[in-house]
Write a structure and sequence with these properties.
Number of strands: 0
Mean pLDDT: 87
Shape: elongated
Number of helices: 3
Low-confidence stretches: none
Largest sheet: none
Radius of gyration: 13 Å
Structural class: mainly alpha
């Protein structure tokens, strides 16, 4: 259940989508959006995908 709240908060924060709209997404779709946002952040911050592989 905590993971669900994390996904909802993450998407609401970045996309400004309402709770009801986020909850209509399938889990896989929510996770994919979260991964895409995280990937954008990694590129902007020049952070490697895996910090242990430099």
């Amino acid at each position: 259940m905590d993971k669900l709240y994390e996904e909802i908060a993450f998407l609401a924060y970045y996309f400004h989508w309402p709770h009801s709209e986020i909850m209509q997404l399938e889990h896989r779709e929510r996770v994919r959006f979260c991964e895409e946002i995280s990937g954008i952040h990694r590129k902007l911050n020049q952070t490697p995908d895996n910090v242990f592989k430099l």
